[in-house]
Amino acid sequence: MPDNSAELVEVGCLVAGDWRTGGTRLDRVGPWVRRVVSTARQADDSDVRAALAYARRGAKAVARMSPAARAEVLERAAVAAVEGREGLARLLALELGKPLKDGRGEIDRVADTFAVSAAEARRIGGEVLPVAGWARGVGNTAFTHHAPVGVALAITPFNAPANLLAHKLAASFAAGNTTIVKPPPQAPAASAALVALLLEAGMPPEAVQVLHGDGRLGAALCAAPEVGVISFTGSVATGAAVARAAGAKRLVLELGGNAATIVCEDADVGLAARICAATGYSNSGQSCISVQRVYVHRDRYEQFLESFTGEVEKLTVGDPLDPATDVGSMVDDDAAARIVEWVGAAAAAGATVTTGGHRDGATVAPTVVASPPADARLIRDEVFGAAVSVLPYDDFDDVVATCNDSRYGLQAGLFTNDVRRIVTAWRELEVGGLVVNGSSNFRLDHVPFGGVKDSGFGRESPRWMIDDYTVVKTLMLRGISLFGDQEGSR
Fold this sequence. Notes:
- 40% of the residues lie in helices and 21% in strands.
- It contains 15 helices and 23 strands.
- It has a seven-stranded mixed beta sheet, sandwiched between helices. A six-stranded mixed beta sheet has the order 10-9-8-11-12-22, sandwiched between helices. A three-stranded mixed beta sheet has the order 1-5-4, with helices on one face.
């Protein structure tokens, strides 16, 4: 298991039950501490071959475990995650610049995800089908059950490497699969530490392997015939590459968004401003549902903009290892430079930057941009950073159409007490989820989560992921009926 307390965490590939070290390594430089904080062995061709062969054999062993046994492992892991919260949060801070408060919150969610996955493992079953309700089915009985797919591939992102790994791996294990994990290069130590925690909680070695590498490794794993289902979270471009490499495999793709939040004229503007400030810059805005576009009714626009800017300026920016820090650094200098560039382009086109707009290394000062043009990249593309745009609107139907004028459709927020508007937005907004009297950036880990359009397809959260991680198998009994035979039905 990786040593969380070490100054430099050395991580191996977990192949066929062993952490393989040595070989070619990739160093991770922490974006805040500006030094190497972890180093990971890069999987080579022999690792890939061994992992795929072991997964094919191991799938049978995992499938033979009872749902109760799998659930007990996950329940122990939930307890262990709480106990290991500080060490895991510190790894996230070092590798990613994520503030401790955000890291602690992520590990709390990991514990919840494990517990929810355990509960869902206990519920896996099937049903008796009503075949005798139709003439050709009389005298017969049919059953279904959810069988494991076999081998799952989990490709996880850097922004929430612990909790999104928990969702993919725990749901896969709950369903009875073995899983190959490809963690993000930016968070190898945090990812390996979570896998080690599961193994210590009793997850059998056949259930999980970890391979570190770049896009070439991901492509090889996606194309491997041994893999039956792939869960990927990341960019649209990489998601498309995953789909091309996978071919006719089951896919769950969560590909990001440019989330909108609508503030109506009847909203509590102060509350909306506080929530949008808190959720627009957590993890430096590096969340697929982070508040990106806030549309405010023109009658309340100036009030909201002033209040929101004031709330943003209260945020503490700095050392992610300081428990008081609200906003740490972004994943790297290039990401930070991109945000500042996009903000500058919007300002040059007529927008007003009410606060922020600059960076120090990988740390972007929380930025508010008022009324950028509709074609600004801050509006059209996924910002994935510490910048939020605020724009006025006049008509509710028009602002819904404006929100929908996007290639993305993941999640939206709406501040109103008008039930008709709530129902209209729920019906008309082209998103996978709507949060009322909250911003777009709110998620419960036991509720279905996913998008439409370029935001991907499939739904994460254990119950819904288990549907993708299992196949429905049917048993037909000819001439045996629970509901009367052919003669008795006449």
